[in-house]
TrEMBL record:
Protein name: Molybdopterin containing oxidoreductase
Gene3D superfamilies per the UniProt record, alphabetical: 2.60.40.650, Oxidoreductase, molybdopterin-binding domain
Domain Moybdenum cofactor oxidoreductase dimerisation: 320-439
Record-linked PANTHER family: SULFITE OXIDASE, MITOCHONDRIAL, SULFITE REDUCTASE
Organism: Flavilitoribacter nigricans (strain ATCC 23147 / DSM 23189 / NBRC 102662 / NCIMB 1420 / SS-2) (Lewinella nigricans)
Biological processes per GO annotation: sulfur compound metabolic process
Alphabetical list of Pfam families matching this protein: Mo-co_dimer, Oxidored_molyb
Length: 441
């Protein structure tokens, strides 16, 4: 089960600066170790905990003291909805329960958080001086842009883009895969505003031998080693050049929450969200597949050919995940809903399929024996999720039911009802979402 940390809100009320330090680690100072709490933070901490932290110098930044985790009130991550389920506090990872993804456009505070390292501290981020540098062996020159340069020199675009972690659904794999045990909520679709990555890359000049771009962000490695990147992934040039590939500074018309990449990030819809670099400070145009942190080995890769569950697969037989597969969510009602016999049950949710669109969504109330077609809306733009709805008015008698939803993409590929291909790291689980419904007298 997911751990839910509670009590940090008290610390936020008492000492927001300390709470920030705890969650985000501290800024780098050349004369002190990174990733550990500063003396001032430790003193303040002792006051809140009701006793000096004797070994406090060893207490890693970004970890929440267990002594704060005993309150009955919910703990909210900064800028995020208190009902996100926190899977991990170091680094912070939190998913959105399915019924809270009911909005057509995911509100910023409900977008999941997936961090590989410690985000930059909010007080250290100045949007007026933030710069993005573009360089690399296949860049014709190297250029730096302030946020203001990006806003004034390039045309602004807004797209609704589905972001889903490649590991969403991992918790169901058997044998289990290591990593965040996401259930279904590492996904969202918001309206992102920024400039086209293509326009900026072309302003710098893309060499004819360019094959990939890679990103670097301002977050720091958990070890505190400034030489190490928590993550540095990228996409092929063809993906970088798509109209919808954005360097974004706004979500739903507002600044991006700090945990989601404030003040600037990449957004690539339809691909594993690990490609959408947060706290974006540098892009490299590469003459080969980018080899940054978590691009190589087994990270964000699946076996090129299906394998038996539990086997180990050699690195050279693993392929980089590109397009995400067809998938859907039931966002209303919440699983566990109870209705009276004879009462109609409205259903709704979203469906998405990487760069493809959705052809149809069906639902079943008899564990997949029969399926009925749902009403389906078109996407707002390419790579936006699509909304579906239906009404069940014929539960035959009282008892326990499950509602299953199944989407089919524009190539005719449908979601599997059981788990799809097992893979060592537990990516790409796109099995049908199901909810429990009880019909009573
Ligand atoms: N700089 C940076 N960018 C990052 C990450 C990160 O840890 N650091 N995590 C990646 C992963 S694995 C995912 S799934 C998405 C999550 O985006 P979100 O936290 O805004 O939902 O960001 C990606 N971009
Ligand atoms: Mo991810």
């Amino acid at each position: 089960m997911a751990k839910k940390y509670i009590g940090l809100h008290e610390l936020y009320a008492k000492d927001p600066e300390l709470a920030d330090r705890l969650l985000w680690g501290r800024q780098s100072h050349s004369n002190s170790r990174r990733g550990f709490l500063q003396r001032s933070a430790l003193l303040a901490m002792g006051a809140v905990l009701g006793g000096n932290m004797v070994y406090g110098r060893n207490f890693p930044a970004g970890m929440i003291p267990a002594g704060l985790a005993n309150s009955s009130e919910a703990f909210a991550l900064p800028g995020k909805h208190p009902d996100l389920v926190v899977l991990n506090d170091r680094p912070v990872n939190a998913e959105t329960p399915a019924h809270l993804l009911d909005d057509k456009v995911t509100p910023a505070d409900l977008l999941f958080v997936r961090n590989n390292g410690l985000p930059p501290q909010v007080e250290g981020i100045d949007p007026n001086t933030w710069t993005l540098t573009i360089e690399g062996e296949s860049a014709r020159t190297s250029k730096s842009y302030t946020l203001a340069d990006l806003k004034s020199r390039f045309r602004e675009y807004t797209y609704h883009l589905t972001l889903e972690c490649g590991g969403n659904g991992r918790s169901e794999f058997n044998p289990p895969a290591k990593g965040n045990q996401w259930t279904v909520g590492a996904v969202g679709c918001a309206a992102w505003t920024g400039v086209r990555l293509r326009d900026v890359l072309e302003d710098v000049g893309v060499g004819s031998d360019a094959v990939y771009i890679g990103y670097y962000g301002k977050d720091s490695h958990l070890s505190g080693d400034p030489e190490k990147d928590p993550i540095s992934r990228g996409v092929p040039i063809s993906k970088a050049m798509q109209n919808e590939s954005l360097i974004a500074w706004a979500i739903n018309g507002e600044a991006i929450p700090v945990l989601n990449g404030y003040p600037l990030r990449l957004v690539f819809g339809g691909w594993p969200a690990s490609t959408s670099g947060k706290w974006l400070s540098r892009i490299v145009i590469r003459n080969k597949v980018h080899d940054g942190e978590k691009m190589t080995g087994q990270s964000y890769r699946v076996p090129c050919k299906p394998v038996a569950p539990g086997v180990s697969v050699a690195d050279e037989d693993m392929c980089i995940i590109e397009n995400m597969p067809v998938k859907s969510l039931i966002t209303f009602p919440q699983s566990g809903a109870t209705i009276r016999k004879g009462q109609a049950l409205p259903l709704r949710g979203h469906a998405w399929a990487g760069e493809l669109s959705i052809q149809k969504v069906e639902y079943s109330i008899d564990f997949g024996s029969t399926w009925r077609t749902c009403k389906l809306e078109g996407p707002v733009n390419k790579m936006a999720w699509q909304h579906w709805s239906a009404t069940v008015s014929d539960f035959p008698e009282t008892g326990y039911y499950e509602v299953w939803a199944r989407a089919t993409d524009s190539n005719g590929i449908a979601q599997p009802m059981v788990l799809p291909g097992w893979n060592p790291r537990g990516y790409l689980n796109n099995a049908c979402h199901r909810i429990a419904v009880k019909v009573v007298k």
